[in-house]
TrEMBL record:
Superkingdom of the organism of origin: Archaea
The protein's name in its UniProt record: ABC-2 type transport system ATP-binding protein
Zinc found in the keyword field: no
Pfam family, one: ABC_tran
Similarity section: Belongs to the ABC transporter superfamily.
Coiled coil start-end: none
UniProt keyword list: ATP-binding, Nucleotide-binding, Transport
Keyword ATP-binding: yes
Species this chain originates from: Natronorubrum texcoconense
GO molecular function per UniProt: ATP binding; ATP hydrolysis activity
Amino acid sequence: MTAIQTSGLARRFGDVVAVESLDLHVRDGEAYGFLGPNGAGKSTTINMLLGFTPPSSGSGTVLGYDIEDESLAIRQSIGVLPEDFGMYERLTARKHVQFAIDTKGATDDPDDLLSRVGLSDAADRKAGGFSTGMKQRVALAMALVGEPELLILDEPSSGIDPNGAREMRAIIQEELDRGATVFFSSHIMEQVEAICDRVGIMSGGRLVAEDSIDALKDQFDDESRLILTVDAVPDGIVSRLEPVDGVLDVRVDGTDIVTSVSNSRSKAVVINAVEDAGGVIADITAEDHSLDDLFAAFTTGDGATRGDARASRAEAALEEVDA
Ligand SMILES: Nc1ncnc2c1ncn2[C@@H]1O[C@H](COP(=O)(O)OP(=O)(O)OP(=O)(O)O)[C@@H](O)[C@H]1O
């Protein structure tokens, strides 16, 4: 069975198209990273999957249940860590978890769950005094109630310190090991890279890529990144380099001119162009692409055509897969 499937799913808020013709396929037992910049439509998608926001058009199923007609069954069967989790200030951490257990008719021991998320010491404290990270841990404990087949986690690591993020990763891995499907949105690329089998990248309400991280990276195999550190960045260097044949992207980061080039011939042209523009090159670095680059490539529209070009490349690649 497909854990999550949507077809032409869309949601508009007035003139704003939050999600547009979304076809999502999350397989049983996989860890699926749902990525995208702020405002890309991730939370709106998750809210549609949970039945909190009705779609403007399109359809979808979660664990085989229809997202519009069977949302109650969906919420009973899955574990959710929502984006904005409101807590009852006067209830203790344990009471929160017990509430989730009772609601689901589950038999978990709340103390076991609080121990898993590292909150044993705070079990009897009222949530009103909790830090953001502690609230997030309570929310995760509540999501884990009843060993759900599917966990939907919206930014699970937000507000969590690096140790907490590592523990969160370990918990997600444990859940995967017992056979659960994990669908989570995140801005933390290391976390996504460490956990995910596949990622879907949203941009402007559309799914611009959906594949394994390795497969997406393969699309960049013929490309490399060239970083020129200069004493002072020459005026207008971005618009000067962008038209150079083989240059896929240019941006300036402090005194670094960061370019993606499709062949080594272009590197020499870039270096010459920077020097011709009066740049004194202090250092040259060539780098492989990281997941951050990949994310930027699929989601940024700045630097003129690059984001669009990448998006169309991604679409072309996906069409090939579909064909
Ligand atoms: N209730 C609403 N009313 C009006 N516009 C909305 C509403 N909810 C979302 N939007 C708009 O829809 C778009 C997508 O928002 P959404 O929250 O889904 O993005 P996101 O990818 O989850 O972003 P973030 O990473 O910042 O949480 C944005 O332009 C947002 O302003």
